[in-house]
Amino acid sequence: MNGAENAIYFAKSPDANGHRETVAEHLEKVARWAGTFGEETGQQNAARVAGQIHDFGKYSRAFQEVLVGTRHGVDHAFPGAAFLYRAGKERLRAIIEAVNGHHDGLRSLEAIKPEMLENLRTDRVLRCPSGKDASLNGGGEYETAIRAFFRDFPRFSKTDLVMSKEAFSSQEGRMLYTRMLFSCLVDADYCVSAAMAVEEPKAPSWDAAIQALNDYRLSLGRDSKANAGLNALRDRLFDCCGEAGSSGKAGLYTLTAPTGTGKTLALLNFALRQKKRRIIIVLPFLSLIEQTAREYAKILPDIFEDHSQREYDDEYREFSARWDPPFILTTSVRFFEALFRWKPGDCRKLHNIAGSVIVFDEAQSLPGALTGATLRAVRALCDRYGCSVVFSTATQPNFAALPNLEWQPVEICPWHSELYASLRRTRVEWRVQEPTPLKTIAEEMAQLDSVCCIVNLRKHAKRLFRRLKKLCPKEEIFFLTTDLCPEHRSAQIDCIRERLRAGLPCRVVSTQCIEAGVDLDFARMYRALAPLEAIIQAAGRCNRNGRLAENGLVVVFVPEAAGRLYPSAAYGKGAMRVKEMLENGEIDIHNAAHIAEYYRRLFRDARDDEKLTDAIARGSYEDVSQCYQLIDDRCVQVIVPYAGRRELFEEIQQELQRTQCVTPQLLQRAAPITVSVYDRDSCERFAEPLFLPARRGQPPRPSGYCILRPQYAQLYTEEMGLQWPEEEENGIIF
Fold it and tell me: Which residues sit opposite 194 in a β-bridge?
């Protein structure tokens, strides 16, 4: 090759115009953009070096053979990591891990170190941890590649890139540092490889948004049906949030305020006045995203929604991968898992989180066994990456009671105790000493025109609803559970809302899906015994606007039913803490001190998931990702024939008939008519499994989705959603 180091090394095959990008050209572009992305994360130099080294392994005969099609299964990322290890050992840990993982995912230095040492000293072809062959093997090939690299980059320097362990307050923070660096590299590489015209985003017009928010609130005030006292408190909270936001100071905040006090707009006032790079609103449920997006759309011209029910075109999909827009609504799953995952696609967006306002609305929904690790990562976002993070809820968890967690947020509304006392819109009747038959609850509900009952389990909801059907006209009763697909559930909620506004009889049986953030207002609420935060959230749907002459009534009861009463052990533990406190004195759900005491008791025995804790201690990105699961991976997604989206259901059926497979894009579109179920046996019996197209001669891949078989279409009804045939106590099968 006339001296292999003097050869021209190409990064890609020829494009449509016949141009062949050289390795040097590609590395220079990626280094430039990675360094730019790293400016906001404080990793400019490290990101630039990672970009300059990431494809070092393409300076090899093996990779050039890949480009002409005479070889395959070659790992060009691993040699770049090995070169860095040779140059800087553990001192360059973060860059080594990022470079090695930029195609296949992050692995710890300890996990790849033995292979790197062997690869550097022996000439035999090494099988890398990725399962591919290293593109460079042994000192001779490395020396040739090094000479070629320094020919292209004679001024390359790796100085001042050391990050000591003492620089991190937690192992979660150290791993997040690497993920941020990884994000800068991966995003730069993706953008350059796709020939994207990456531009520095324009500064958002926050002043215009603030004016639009103020105008919108004035219009709401003119049309408000809430009493004057409530409106005055909402105004005070709004102004308080605006004042706190105007400081522009990054840090950790909480907003503690009862339901119905206008937190959604107050939080937006805080976020806008911070005037940071972007605003990210994180919500626990898809129903809340839809509701919040509708309200924010009246104020902000461009709202980017990133969640499982969003239909993406190519441009929108790219936005979802990068989180480049200035205003983002997303789910807790999307956000938190991005902090703990290990694959390039999962981490690509992370660098765009730096310097943002992040609002966790309804923050009581954090996962129990993952809470400690989650909060330490969030803490790192504030301490190192210039983020302002707000946890907002009516039931602010006392996270300071958790072991091994430094948690000292600034409370935006320090007068929240006064706020709770002023907004006593409900009283609670505790029926927890003896179980109450669901038949009794149904009979009481039948006598009321505006009432909702929230239970803990779908089977209890079904039994209660069937009892209620015998007592009330069909148009006056509603069933809300996750047995309804999201589109159907939203339609039901809209119908409920309209009946309540019109003063028409409305009786609702629901599981927890109605609890947080759903803007409904009932005269009476029944709630099966649950953790205190769930009871308070349910109470927030009772006399929400304070229009009743007397306080609304919330009845907390224990259902008389066989079998388990709670969806999980953790949920049951919270309910028992409530019962424990009731035995020692009545709980006042309007007293912030009582709420804090509840969390103190709940957290006193709290422990992070042992497998997750161990994986974090070892710095194993892959194991951490596997352990950090916000969604139960036992569930199966079933696509159902909801009448409101019949054409979409038929489109999927036609795709199956034509190809026997479905695409990820089509499954994405199917999200609004998809139900999550845990009964795999029923799925296998009544639904057809769906497969993704095969790769390179391999068989089609399971998608995790099924579609209800045509002969069983009647199992999805407009009344109760997806109901598997079951045997009731009276022996009737339906």
Answer: none
Neighbours of 720 (CB within 10 A): 19
Other beta carbons within 10 angstroms of residue 368's beta carbon come to 18
| Whether pTM exceeds 0.90 | no
Distances (CA, A) of 633 to 155, 189, 374, 408, 636: 49, 31, 19, 34, 8
CATH class held by domain 424-589:
alpha beta
Residue with tokens 């053979």: 65
In sequence order, which residues have a C-beta less than 8 Å from that of residue 235 and are 6 or more positions away? none
Domain 206-412, CATH: 3.40.50.300
Residues of the chain with CATH 3.40.50.300: 206-412, 424-589
Three-class secondary structure of residue 688 per DSSP: strand
The string of pLDDT tens digits covering residues 699-729 is 888 888 999 999 999 999 999 999 998 644 4
Q: Which amino acid is at 88?
A: G
Evaluate whether 148 touches 4 at the Cβ level (below 8 Å): yes
Please tell me the distance from the alpha carbon of residue 637 to that of residue 675, in angstroms, as a whole number: 6
Candidate CATH numbers 3.40.640.10, 1.10.3210.30, 3.40.50.150, 3.20.20.150; the one for domain 4-193: 1.10.3210.30
Antiparallel, parallel or unpaired: β 674-677 and 687-692: unpaired
If one counts every other C-beta atom within 10 angstroms of the C-beta of residue 55, the result is: 25
List all residues 6 or more positions away from 307 whose beta carbon is below 8 Å from its beta carbon.
Answer: 286, 289, 329, 330, 331, 334
Q: Give 91-102 pLDDT, tens digit per residue.
A: 899 999 999 999
Give the residue from 448, 449, 425, 445 showing the smallest Cα distance to 436.
Answer: 445
Three-state secondary-structure class, residue 132: coil
Q: Which segments of the chain belong to CATH 1.10.3210.30?
A: 4-193
How many helices (H) and strands (E) the chain has is answered by 28, 21
> Rounded CA gap, 342 and 107, in Å?
8
Look at strands 133-134 and 388-393 and give their pairing. unpaired
